[in-house]
Write a structure and sequence with these properties.
The protein has 233 residues and is α/β, with parallel strands linked by helices. It has a single domain, classed as TIM Barrel, CATH 3.20.20. An eight-stranded parallel β-sheet has the order 7-6-5-4-3-2-1-8. The two termini are 24 Å apart.
């Protein structure tokens, strides 16, 4: 059997087992957690192998890489744009992308809505929140997330489905838990505002180094690349 396929299958089995154990700690099962396979710099053959294993939700950081790969792979999977999105790049993805995780400003939400309106489509988005406050990370401040959600609720061709964050890269479990808990609490508070066209169904939080803690704190969508495909070259 193909060694690379064995490697991917082994990684996937390990990840799913860890997801299930973390989910059980929060009173859920692995079926409640969606795994996004982050395919940044991953070649087409390996992506196809992971799709054949049943993982059809794929995450890309860059618009150009997404466009190239989605054209080759074709239909049968759901693409998520998880990286920072420039307003002038929206037109290249709005017709096919399943979800945009990184909406962090009104200008971007407005552009997505405008482009989606032109093709009579509604695009699912998440509001990216910079919970940790790190200057190196994109995302709106927690305090400003309410206003962005309120403004986005006025657009007919986007649908806010929840929140996303990126935690600090650290082994400090307390720090990670605090970040994830704050995002979950923020989603609850926004939900209470009852904005039209807004739901807080999705918490996209947790990556290869911290997804178990994220799930324990309420994440139902994790974005995993390195733990699945191995370290990037």
């Amino acid at each position: 059997m193909n060694k690379e396929l064995d490697y991917l299958r082994g990684n996937l089995e390990n990840i799913m087992d860890r997801i299930d154990k973390a989910a059980q700690k929060s009173g859920r099962s692995h079926k409640d957690i969606k795994l996004i396979a982050v395919t940044k710099t991953v070649d087409i053959d390996r992506i196809r192998k992971i799709i054949e294993e049943g993982i059809i939700d794929l995450g890309e950081n860059r618009v150009q890489e997404y466009a190239e790969k989605s054209d080759i792979i074709g239909e049968g999977c759901n693409w998520h744009l998880i990286g920072h999105l420039q307003t002038n790049k929206v037109k290249y993805i709005v017709d096919k992308i399943s979800m945009i995780h990184s909406v962090d400003r009104l200008e971007l939400a407005s552009e997505i809505n405008k482009r989606a309106l032109k093709i009579d489509r509604t695009v699912d988005i998440l509001i990216q929140v910079n919970i940790s406050g790190e200057e190196s990370k994109f995302g709106i401040s927690p305090e400003s997330a309410f206003d962005l959600a309120k403004q986005a609720s006025l657009f007919n061709n986007i649908k806010v489905k929840g929140l996303m964050t990126i935690a600090p890269f650290t082994d400090n479990i307390k720090t990670l838990r605090d970040v994830f808990r704050k995002l979950r609490n923020l989603s609850i508070d926004i939900e209470k505002e009852n904005y039209d066209n807004i739901s807080m169904d999705i918490l996209s939080m947790g990556m290869s180094n911290d997804f178990e803690v994220a799930i324990e704190e309420g994440s139902n969508m994790v974005r995993i690349g390195t733990a699945l495909f191995g370290k990037r070259c």
